[in-house]
């Protein structure tokens, strides 16, 4: 992913946003990010999910899917509060960097 160091924050925000909306799992998140133009590999996403969980933004559980198991992620109350604060900061930033103030 070009400019990965700058865009990784946007990827984390996408993850937290979707985890706040409901269940997500890694493969679905990779596909969702691709819809938005982010090329994120499993080798990048899964450590990111584990890191967000370790920091308390996400919680996970294991669900059985056929013969396999899938880790499902949701935002924690801490993650929901963080997301609201980040939305405020994002609006402020976008007002500054977007010349037509469409944010």
TrEMBL record:
GO MF annotation terms: DNA binding
Pfam family for this entry, one: PadR
Keywords: DNA-binding
Transcription regulator PadR N-terminal domain ranges (all copies): 15-84
Name under which the protein is recorded: DNA-binding transcriptional regulator, PadR family
